[in-house]
Amino acid sequence: MFDAHIVKKDFPILNRLIDGKKNIYMDTAASAQKPLSLIKTLERAYLEEYANVHRGSYWLSETATENYEHARNVAAKFINAPTADSIIFTRSATEGINLVAATYGCANLTSGDEIVLSRAEHHANFVTWQQTALKTGAKIVYFDLDKDGNFVWENFEKSLSGRTKIVAVTAMSNVLGTIFPVERICAAAHNFGAKVLIDACQFAVHKKIDVQKFDCDFLAFSGHKVYGPTGIGVLYGKYDLLKEMPPYQYGGDMIENVSYEKTSFALPPARFEAGTPAIVQAIGLASSLEYLMKFDFNEIEKYEAELISYTSKLLLDIPNLKILGTAHEKGGVFSFAIDGIHPQDLAFILSKEGVAIRTGHFCAQPLVNALGYTSLARASLGIYTTKEDVDDFVSALVKAKFFFEND
Q: Distance between CA atoms of 287 and 97, rounded to whole angstroms?
């Protein structure tokens, strides 16, 4: 049985005091904390096994290369990719989405084509395709969720047409927590001949990814949100598509042959990994994914469903507090507002109680503005979040609310 109390012991930072208070970390949606196994992996990689990869014929380089390519295999296993050659290491999920837009998008979109987005997209997906549309003459078509944040199939279905070339959607909203029906979305888009990109940054922390079951054409997620290092992301693409896409950047290690007259490029994934890659970050990512794969995701989902229900009930009992996003299919993200209290002021008081939350528009400004706000507060759950953490968070929230109402 999954036990978050045991899991928490694997995360040293969560077992330290902050100004004499317990460290109640409720900001995993922004960036997850790191297990000791990852920290030790990073230390070993720098202390004992560091060298550049794919270039040296000496032990350090060969070992680093082996570890780096092992990370590609681990990432493929994590998302059930059919081949590790369909895994591209990027600086972030943001870069992965930009890569697809700049290569596949710009090569295949023309004036009159349509790109379908939900109105709940993160800026990494929203702005990237918005700018791609401006470059290519394509048009963005948006579809709405309902007032509670539920995915509405009819709204999505109406957004598709014979002009749809790309559907780019989140698998889980970082503001509303809404889980999107990815497999069904891919099937419907493919019926119109469109390609599908999935932003799985939030989803990857909470749910099992299976790109073969989803049948998505592209999928991106970031390392730092899956308990791994910053500076590393994963882009999956169907290999036949990757082979036809031009390079994203040019430089070392992505070429097949270079002469003064012309250059030919390597096959994927090397074609899309120009220059010295994020070697140690990729090795660290493998460690964090192997750590996650020790758990049964079905048990994680069951535990989080109970914790989401528990948290929702406690928050809804607080007068004048409104949760933005109460979808039936929802992940562990709670964006909320309290009448008369600015989120930044609220977060300041919570910080004094050892509770870390996020404030702002969460890189989803159009959505937050459409909900009627310029800024919200957000608490988010991880595999290390316990009911006691939620109790402490809610207790601090009530205390802060009392402070402002009686100031």
A: 24
Task: Report the C-alpha gap between 78 and 209 in whole angstroms.
Answer: 7
Of 380, 391, 331, 27, the C-alpha closest to 208 is 331
Share of the chain above pLDDT 90, in %: 98
Local confidence band at 406 (pLDDT 50, 70, 90 cut-offs):
confident
The answer to whether 199 and 179 have CB atoms below 8 angstroms apart is: no
The angle, 0 to 180 degrees and rounded to 10, between the axes of the packed helices 387-405 and 297-316 is 20
Tell me the H-state helices in 80-202. Answer: 93-100, 106-108, 123-136, 153-159, 182-191
The DSSP symbol for 58 reads S
Task: Kindly tell me the burial class for residue 201, based on how many C-beta atoms sit within 10 Å of its own C-beta (0-12, 13-18, 19 or more).
Answer: buried
Q: What tokens appear for 195 in the block?
A: 């390609």
Phi, psi of 251 (to 5 degrees): 160, -150
pLDDT tens string 347-378: 999 999 999 999 999 999 999 999 999 999 99
Domains of the chain, CATH where assigned: 4-26+296-405 (3.90.1150.10), 39-292 (3.40.640.10)
Instruction: Determine the residue type at 406.
Output: N
Phi, psi of 219 (to 5 degrees): -150, 135
Within 8 A by CB and 6+ apart from 290, the residues are: 74
Is the predicted pLDDT of residue 22 greater than 90, yes or no? yes
Span 383-394, average pLDDT: 98
Q: Where residue 1 falls among pLDDT bands split at 50, 70, 90?
A: confident
Catalytic (active site) residue 216: no
Q: What is the pLDDT of residue 132?
A: 98
Catalytic residue among 186, 201, 216, 363: 363
Exposure on the CB side of residue 398, measured as CA atoms within 13 A? 12
Angle 199-205-207 from CA coordinates, rounded to 5° = 85
Best CA proximity match to 140, nearest among 114, 107, 122, 120? 114
Q: How many CA atoms lie within 13 A of 280 on its CB side?
A: 16
- Dihedrals φ, ψ of 303, to 5°? -65, -45
SS3 336: strand
Q: Which two tokens stand for residue 152?
A: 């509405």
169-189 pLDDT, tens per residue?
999 999 999 999 999 999 999
pTM beyond 0.90: the answer is: yes
